[in-house]
C-alpha cells in the first residue's frame, strides 16, 4: 500500500535547515528517559492462582511500585498514587515466565504528574516477548515539610516522548470530567433499561463479599501510607470471589475502569473490602468493589471504589455466556443501571482511544457520551500526524498501516500565534480565504472548545456532485509555554445529519498547529485526493494561492480584538 507524505515549505531553504536542526530529537535507541524505571520479576507459584496464572493483584502491586519509583525519581520527594486510567489485560502470564515493567513520567503539571506504564511478558525458553497491558497513572508529590511542591517540567527528547508529553494534557482533561460523563448518561431517560426476566435471573445477593485486612508495615511505603497497588490487590481478590460465586468457575479479569484514590490509608488501619456483581452482559460481568478504612473507634473512611470486568473462558479460551442477574431493590437497581452506563463508556473509550489511529474509521458516530473521547482522538490524531519524523520535501514513502495521503504545509507569519489561533478557530469564516469551502454551517456547539460543522465543497469535475463533510472542530490552547496551539478537525457521523442525495459525503482529518510557525496537516481520504493531486504532481499552485490568501486574511484581521465566537451562534 502506497502512502505519499508531501511536505510543502514556504519558508526559505536556509531557514528550513535551521528549523530542522533546532527540532532535532535524539535517537530512540540511544536515549533513556531520566525518570525511567524498569522492573523484572519471574512468576513463582506464590504469585499465581490455582490455574498457574499470575494474579492480577500481584501484577498491580508491581506496576504501582515501579510507577511510584519513577514519579519519585522525577519529583525528588515522596509521591502517592492519585488515580489510574482504564487498564485492559490482553494476555495472562504463567508461572516461570518473566514480567517486564517499564515506567516513566510523561508530563508534570503543578504538583501532579502522569506516569506511563508498559507491561510485557517474556518466555525464557522460547525467547518470545508480548505485550500484556499499558496504563497511565497520576501521582501527586508530597513533601514532608510545609513547602508547596512545584514540579519541574518534563523535556521530551525523542519523538515518542514528544507525542506522549503532548497527549498527556488531553488525557488529563478527560480524567477531570469522567464522573460528569457517567452522570449525564444516567440522567438520559432513553438509556434506562429494564431488568431481565426474574425467573431466569440469579440474585446478586449470593455474590456479595466482605473482607477485612490489617495494614502492616510490609504493606506500606516509606511514608507509612498503604501502597495503592496493595489496596488494588486486596480489591481484586474480593472481586474475583464475587465473580466466582456467580459463575461457579474461575473468572479471568479483563479490564479495570478508571479509578481515583479518595484518601490515604496508613499502617495500623483496618481496610474493609466489599464486592458484588453489579450486572452481567452476554459474555462478561462487572463487579463493583469498595475499600473503606478505619482506625480503632474512628468512623469508616472511603478510600477507593473500582469496577472490574471479568470473563469466564472455556477450554479453548473462548468467553462463555453468563446468566442474567436480579439486582436488589434501590441500591442494587442503581448499580445495575450505572453498570450499563459504564459499559457503554468503556466500549467507547476502548474503541476510540485504545485502538491504533488506523483501526478507527474517520467518521465515528458522535453522541454526548463519547464526545470527550472523540475530541481526544481528534487532537491526538493530529499531534501524532505532526510527530511523524519522516516528512520530506516532495518525497514519497511506503507506509503499510494506512491508505491515505498525508501532507503538510508550513509558512511563517508576522502575527502572534495566539491571534492566528483565534482567527483560524472560527471555521465559519474559512470560506473567506479557502476556495474549497463554499459553505461552513455550525450544527452544534459541544462546549467552549469543540464544535460540529457541516462543510460543503465544490466538485472537482465540471457539473459533478458537491461534497459535504461533517467535521468536529476541537481547539486547544497550550497548557504551558512548550505546547502548541491546536485546531483539529475530523469527520464524525452525526445522527441528525445523515448523508443525502444532494451531496456526496466525504471524510478527512486535518488541522493547524502553531509553534511558532503555522503548520497545516491533512490526512486526505480518497474524497479529498482530487483536490490536491495537481499540486502533488507540480501542475498547479493552488496550495500556494490558498495559503497566501490565508496569510492576507490574518494580516487584514490582526487588529480584531473580539474573542472567538462562531458567527452561526
Automatic annotation (TrEMBL):
<comment type="pathway">
    <text>Lipid metabolism; fatty acid metabolism.</text>
</comment>
<dbReference type="InterPro" id="IPR033120">
    <property type="entry name" value="HOTDOG_ACOT"/>
</dbReference>
<keyword id="KW-0276">Fatty acid metabolism</keyword>
<dbReference type="InterPro" id="IPR023393">
    <property type="entry name" value="START-like_dom_sf"/>
</dbReference>
<feature type="domain" description="HotDog ACOT-type">
    <location>
        <begin position="33"/>
        <end position="145"/>
    </location>
</feature>
<keyword id="KW-0677">Repeat</keyword>
<keyword id="KW-0443">Lipid metabolism</keyword>
<dbReference type="GO" id="GO:0006637">
    <property type="term" value="P:acyl-CoA metabolic process"/>
</dbReference>
<dbReference type="Pfam" id="PF01852">
    <property type="entry name" value="START"/>
</dbReference>
<feature type="domain" description="HotDog ACOT-type">
    <location>
        <begin position="205"/>
        <end position="316"/>
    </location>
</feature>
<keyword id="KW-0719">Serine esterase</keyword>
<dbReference type="GO" id="GO:0006631">
    <property type="term" value="P:fatty acid metabolic process"/>
</dbReference>
<dbReference type="GO" id="GO:0052816">
    <property type="term" value="F:long-chain fatty acyl-CoA hydrolase activity"/>
</dbReference>
<dbReference type="InterPro" id="IPR002913">
    <property type="entry name" value="START_lipid-bd_dom"/>
</dbReference>
<dbReference type="InterPro" id="IPR029069">
    <property type="entry name" value="HotDog_dom_sf"/>
</dbReference>
<dbReference type="InterPro" id="IPR006683">
    <property type="entry name" value="Thioestr_dom"/>
</dbReference>
<keyword id="KW-0963">Cytoplasm</keyword>
<dbReference type="GO" id="GO:0005829">
    <property type="term" value="C:cytosol"/>
</dbReference>
<dbReference type="InterPro" id="IPR040170">
    <property type="entry name" value="Cytosol_ACT"/>
</dbReference>
<dbReference type="GO" id="GO:0052689">
    <property type="term" value="F:carboxylic ester hydrolase activity"/>
</dbReference>
<dbReference type="Pfam" id="PF03061">
    <property type="entry name" value="4HBT"/>
</dbReference>
<keyword id="KW-0378">Hydrolase</keyword>
<protein>
    <recommendedName>
        <fullName>HotDog ACOT-type domain-containing protein</fullName>
    </recommendedName>
</protein>
<dbReference type="GO" id="GO:0008289">
    <property type="term" value="F:lipid binding"/>
</dbReference>
